[in-house]
Amino acid sequence: MSRVFRVALAALLLLASVFSAAALAQDGGPEDAPPSTAPSFQPDGELDVLGVLRRSVDIVDVIVAAPGELVGEQIPTNSWFVSVDGVSQSVKADRLEGDDLEVVMLLDVSGSMDIAAMNAAKAAASRFVDTLPVSTAISIVQFGDEASVLSSLGAPQDELFVAIDGLRADRQAETALYDAVLLGLDQFTSAEDTGRTLVVLSDGDDTVNPDAASLAATAVAEREVDIVAIGLETSDSNDAALEDLVAPAGGRLLAASDASLEAVYNDLASVLSNQYRLSFEPAALGAGDVFLLLSTEQGQFGSFVSYEAAELVPAPAPPAAAPVNPATSESAITLPAASIVPEPAWWADDSIRLIGLGLLALAIAAIGYLLAGSSDQAVQLASAGRDRSVQAIGGAPERLTGIADSFLERGERGALLERALDRAGIALRPAEFVVLAAVFASIGGLLGFLFAGPVAALLFAGLILFGSRMWVSFKISRRRRMFEEQLGSTVQLLAGSLRAGYAVPQAAETVANEAESPTADEFHRLVTEHRLGRDFSESMNAMADRVESQDFRWVVQAIAIHREVGGDLAEVLDNVGATIRDREFIRRQFQAMSAEGRYSAYLILSLPFVVLAVLSVGNPEYIDVLFNSARGFITLTVAGTLMFVGGSWLFRLIRPQF
After folding, report:
1. 46 phi and psi, to 5 degrees?
2. How much is the CA Rg of the chain, to the nearest whole Å?
3. Please, what's the b/e burial string for 14-43 (b: 16 or more CB within 10 A of its CB; e: otherwise)?
4. Which residues pair with residue 102 across a beta bridge?
5. CA-CA distances (angstroms) from residue 190 to 47, 49, 95, 602, 629?
6. Are residues 253 and 241 in contact, defined by beta-carbon separation less than 8 angstroms?
């Protein structure tokens, strides 16, 4: 068996091992870590639970906001732990993107808002809108004597900024706070699995419809909307009314002054931009109590929530007596017969598992490489009483190439591929090349499926198959280029041999012995074919077809004409060689003169991809618009088309034809 098939078999073993390793790593999770035997647990802080939704009998979603210490960081799935009624569950954690966020801003424009407070509110609201992801759906509602919608949910940013800039406080206006809350709730869509937040900015109680306090608070709790009230300190401040509004839904009340208002909004925007949806299977069909734990290098954060069979259960408000900083408190959260998982050890990380099992796969591949001997060796071992499985291993490549041969025999595919491999100087049969391409395409497809899904699998497999064909074309082009560069010296050597008294076949043999590859390879084949009985002219024409060089065709024609009419072939070859060397000189001179333009074209064509890579790392939210909107896809399509046309035009300009 050839070495290339031994490599192919080793690659297949490596693929199978990596596939198994990745599956094990994905199955591994909090259950694999050693549990703590402590009956209680003291977290460093509490998780902010924004909502709980039982989507179906088998799926429960919990939306949480990452702690402030982790704002801007991507939290891996294995950092989360979920237990339901004391039984740990496998959890999937997805960070909510801008498309999954809905925010309704309620802004007070009543008489208690003086000019300074109004200006601070407008500046803070504008900064808040600008800080959230661009794709976040935002609505703005103002309330004075009555509530009104200034911009509907999903309005573009420009419209939001105009609406905020147009806010004006009416010194005679009352405060319709609860009407504004009910109107704001109506702005949300029905998608309960999105991150929905109602942000209320006010300084006091409702003076228009105070009896609606209970109605508004109940509506917020029933709609499972996260509510944040920002109490602005003014002469008419009434934080008690805002506390009564947010308490039933487990919301938050944040106090702010004119000077600190922008900082409060900035912190809130950071929290809203870092929300996660935790999905897990409930332990039973009925209601359940859930304990959530996030373990990171910055600390451990926990919280309790509950769910029912067919409806959301809001996250309970923290106890009034709970300290602001749990890390310094004597109180502890006691688990309901559940074990707390400590910070995962380094070896429990998925990437570390993949590396370790990948090394094991390398060892298995090495064993397969050694076992994959030739079929004859396998038969001898089997006849000697050795393991017959070796014979099966040794015969597998032959069976694969047999299948490939059957496929290539249909039509002219096999002949075309054989001719391409021959011209490229690749020492493989068409069936062998097809098997190798299929093996590596399978490797790329399965790795793409493991790490990016089925679309990436098809893309990777297709790119590898396309790349294998491009590799053959590149080998053909490079071999032809090298042959043409050596042709001037080759013709000169032929002419010299003829002057020394050699016949044309003997002169060709001299070239085969003294020239460099690929010229020597082609002339060796020419001499061998002639010795086996093929006519020399036919061998020369076949060689010209393989190398596809117009200059060499002139040499073949000169030799053919000489055989018919006679004459001084050496002198004819001298003239042909001089012409070929002049053409090569002009070609090299053109390459040197166009070098600056060619490399400028390379640089210009690469700049969009470099900028895309830099922005994807430095500011992914900015560049994501290109891939998540219709206008972005249109822009990419038009830009790609123009780049292709411009690049093709440039490269045709620098390709001389003479």
Report:
1. -105, 145
2. 38
3. bbebbbebbeebeebbbeebeeeeeeebeb
4. 137, 196
5. 25, 20, 20, 50, 22
6. no
Counting every residue written for the chain, the total comes to: 658
Q: What span, in angstroms and rounded, lies between the C-alpha atoms of 398 and 374?
A: 10
Q: Which residues are registered as beta bridge partners of 46?
A: 302
CA–CA distances in Å: residue 636 to residues 608, 628, 639: 11, 11, 5
Cβ(251)–Cβ(216) under 8 Å?
Answer: no
User: For residue 380, which phi and psi values (nearest 5 degrees)?
Assistant: -65, -40
Measured between its terminal Cα atoms, the distance across the chain in Å is: 47
348-384 pLDDT, tens digit each: 455 545 555 555 555 555 555 544 444 444 445 444 4
**Amino acid at site 547:** V
239-246 long-range contacts, CB within 8 A, separation 24+: 240/205, 241/177, 241/204, 241/205, 241/206, 241/213, 242/200, 242/202, 244/213, 244/217, 245/177, 245/178, 245/181, 245/200, 245/213, 245/216, 245/217, 245/220, 246/217, 246/220
Residue with tokens 């994959």: 372
Residue 344 confidence (pLDDT) above 50 = no
Q: Is the pTM of this model over 0.85?
A: no
Instruction: Quick: pLDDT tens for 256-315.
Output: 888 888 888 888 887 777 778 888 877 666 677 888 888 877 778 888 877 765 444 444
Residue holding tokens 């309960």? 192
Burial label, 475 (beta-carbon count in 10 A; 0-12, 13-18, 19+): middle
Burial (CB count within 10 angstroms: exposed 0-12, middle 13-18, buried 19+), residue 614: exposed
Report residue 145: phi and psi, to 5°: -65, -30
Phi, psi of 118 (to 5 degrees): -65, -45
Distance CA 643, CA 410 (A): 38
Whether 159 contacts 131, CB under 8 Å: no
Tokens 């440039």 locate to 650
